[in-house]
Amino acid sequence: MPETVINTGITSTAAELSFDDFRKIVINDYRVGFESRQASVIGRREVLTGKAKFGIFGDGKEVAQLAMARAFRKGDWRAGYYRDQTFMFATGMSNLKEFFAQLYANPDIEKDPASGGRQMNCHYATRFVDTEGNWTNQAETMNCGADISTTGGHMPRLLGLAYASKLYRQNKELEYLKQFSVNGNEVAFGTIGNGSTSEGLFFETFNAAGVLQVPMAISIWDDAYAISVPARLQTTKEDISEVLKGFQRDAKGNGYEIFKVRGWDYAALCETYERAIKICREEHVPVLIHVVEMTQPQGHSTSGSHERYKSKDRLSWEEEHDCLLQMRKWMIESAIMSAEELDVLESEAKKYVRNCQREAWAELETEIKAEMAQAVELINGVAQQSAKRDELLGMLSSLQACVDPGRRDTIACVRKVLRLTVKENTEARQSLLNWLGAEKDKNVERFNSRLFTNTPKSPLYVPVVAAEYADDAKIMDGREVLNACFDANFERDKAITAFGEDVGAIGDVNQGFAGLQAKYGDLRITDTGIREATIIGQGMGLAMRGLRPIAEIQYLDYLLYSITVLSDDLASLSYRTMGGQSAPLIVRTRGHRLEGIWHSGSPLGFILNALRGMHICVPRDMTQAAGMYNTLLRGDEPALVIECLNGYRLKERLPANVGEFTVPLGKAEILKEGTDITVVSYGSTLRIVMEAAEELSEMGINMEVIDPQTLYPFDTDNLCGRSLQKTNKLLVVDEDLPGGGSAFILQKIIEQQNGYYSLDAQPKTLCGAEHRPPYGSDGDYFSKPSHDDIVETVYKIMNEANPGKYPAIY
Ligand SMILES: Cc1ncc(C[n+]2csc(CCOP(=O)(O)OP(=O)(O)O)c2C)c(N)n1
Ligand SMILES: [Mg+2]
User: Fold this and answer.
1) Which range is least confidently modeled, 196-200, 427-431, 545-549, 599-603?
2) Pocket test for ligand 1, best of 227, 323, 564, 567 (most atoms within 8 A of CB)
3) How many C-beta atoms surround the C-beta of residue 625 within 10 A?
4) pLDDT of residue 16
């Protein structure tokens, strides 16, 4: 079998090639395409025979991807979806063995470097961070952001990957970051299915890239269907590039270059990609390549058959227009290869793919069977010393009879054996217990690890530097403290950039960035359109390419408009690549109480649930916020910082080291020591809690007040749990709905920190009302925890504990 030639990233125009060179390229392309098709065919079979759970493949999309790969160079990026295996093989960013390893969910990161078996098949990623937190030289590699299954969800990230090239080209201060860019020459290639262009994220991204003029090349793989739903029900005029024509650049202004080409016409595809990518790369103009007349030889996925919803005519049209069939025909007509030669190539390719598949399966199976053999021996030992010998031996033979066993089969059997022999304290049982313990650690690493990259550069390990104050420290508005912090950081690190709605010219709606655009330029402090999802995507792409973005969401309530990107893409990035990719994006926003339904939000419950994989910081004032930014900007993991909307004009002292001091993540702080009750609160409610503490103290109640400062991680030193050992009573106060952020805090304290064992009274939460907060001061009073509410709730807990000393108020 001749070696497959991998795209080296050097393109040459057809005109410069001899016929022989040209012929070689075409033959190699066809081989890669054909192997890819075989992978799809065998992959589907593996699912249908039960070796893999689910399969989705790139059959019918091969030829366009060969052409796209020809235009793809070192330094470039891909953000695509599950149809792109051919492109990945053609560029060498993946291979057939890895393809099958992922299909079989092999959790060995060496075998499936994209996801360590965590993602469905055909979800690609290249690894650019190692366990020490060192980044590869991305300018020297071909790069692929980790795919997600949600169709269209990757579009905002694509924008950011392209936007990084713009910053690298236009901001000369970034020239020192050579490992990420060569003068911004890198193109960000996106792929998306025709149906998924109906998603809002597609349109938001499309418009933003036109405005920003970034080197983004979107390919739409148009097979006229989205599972069963035809183009007629998806797209106006059934033709997305026709609809998008208004984005074409012209005398009236900047925009796109738009191309349309058939998915089975190899020569036209190669020519189109060469032209389109040249414009995109050299001029930094976004391009759209609408690839039509694509097919699905095997239907959408292994979940169903397309014969159910496609007409006979359509199915026979698809058969005839199969891109590989058409390419084969063209190769014969162009005297590149004869039919007989192609037959030989194809039969060799089939054997080669089969071998890759078998090897990938054997690699996983060998490991699993070796583990099973160890367990079998140990269980056998337990059985020999057990009163339940026969039952255990019966279980053993069922385990050994498993067809294609998984790790779960072995572990489940071991656990059952341990349950059955719970009263038998034998040596053999102890050995089995020890074995299970060791396997447990390995399985945690395989299946549960790297929610964060956890490298030595994690913000959790940033040295703690205390805030220092001169005797005559200036007292100023909180927003000015923040402003000074940002100023110092922008001065220190040229890779930091901030953007969002109204962030640039006016320095954000609360003036945190005031004056900084004038000082550092509009490439570093930048206004954006109203487009929260792509603001996050913009930041994510920049962060993946070595920059240090602060993406601003104007109010916490608008975070919802970006939540898909935050949750599906950013927060899961490290986990879904097993720590192979990282996007240390800092999302800045402001929330908690102010005025009205959409400017008073404090939905921490949903944030904590949706954003596991990000640090969640809830500073009580702007000084603490500044310290958190100082920490995060020196670490390498993503975070959300929620500033207090009503705190910008409150007076704070300016630390002398405002750009240097750090607030550590996960470190709670006791704001007031007390002995009677522990009150845990965060953000805007803390100030009211502290005021309530004064009145309560006059009533003879000595509260301890704890600010966890960050909700994720939460109080890693168990300050709350330890406080309960002293006070034996707990109240959690926040502005979220009942059962939201406060429930999270309760679970941490009561269960994780063992607070339950210290309680003398029922633990309580005091939260906002179960609706959005109404407008106005009365609205606030009647729907968010007030001073009166806090005083009376604490008092009531004391009353329940000691009614004699604290008689009921009502
Ligand atoms: C956000 C989201 N909605 C729905 C789905 C379920 N889904 C998976 S693939 C698919 C069809 C996509 O069609 P298209 O974009 O045309 O791509 P194709 O599969 O045809 O290449 C749908 C609806 C999903 N994965 N993500
Ligand atoms: Mg489609």
Assistant:
1) 599-603
2) 227
3) 26
4) 72
- 193 Cβ inside 6 Å of ligand 1: yes
Report the separation in Å between the CA atom of 568 and the middle of ligand 2, taken as the mean of its atom positions. Answer: 21
Residue 299 backbone zone (phi > 0: left; psi -120 to 50: alpha; other: beta): left
Q: Where are the alpha helices (DSSP H) in 728-802?
A: 741-746, 776-783, 787-801
Nearest CA, atom 13, ligand 1: 226
- DSSP 3-state of 707: strand
Q: Is 221 in the pocket of ligand 1 (CB under 6 A)?
A: yes
**Other beta carbons within 10 Å of 765:** 21
Looking at the whole model, is its pTM more than 0.85? yes
Asked if the model's pLDDT at residue 209 lies above 60, the reply is: yes
CA neighbor of 560 nearest in space, from 200, 229, 238, 248: 200
227 lines ligand 1 (CB under 6 A): yes
Q: Give the closest residue (by CA) to ligand 1 atom 15.
A: 193
* Ligand 1 midpoint to CA 310 (Å): 17
Dihedral angle over CA of 413, 419, 424, 429, nearest 10: 40
- 619 prior amide bond cis, ω within 30: no
Determine the distance separating the centroid of ligand 2 and the alpha carbon of 225, expressed in angstroms. Answer: 4
As a whole number of angstroms, the distance between CA 131 and CA 179 comes to 18
Residue 18's identity, in one-letter code, is S
Tell whether ligand 1 has an atom less than 6 A from the beta carbon of residue 202.
no
The CA–CA distances, whole Å, from 272 to 78, 83, 269, 601, 770 equal: 18, 20, 5, 49, 56
Task: Provide the pairing of β-strand 615-617 with 229-230.
Answer: unpaired
Q: What is the pLDDT of residues 692-733, one digit of tens each?
A: 999 999 999 999 999 999 999 999 999 999 999 999 999 999
**150 touches ligand 1 (CB under 6 Å):** yes
Atom of ligand 1 nearest to the CA of 300: 19
What does the alpha-carbon distance between residue 37 and residue 249 come to, in Å, rounded to a whole number? 37
In the numeric block, which tokens belong to residue 724?
A: 């309960």
**What is the pLDDT at residue 17?**
79
Judge whether 648 and 478 are in contact, CB under 8 Å.
yes
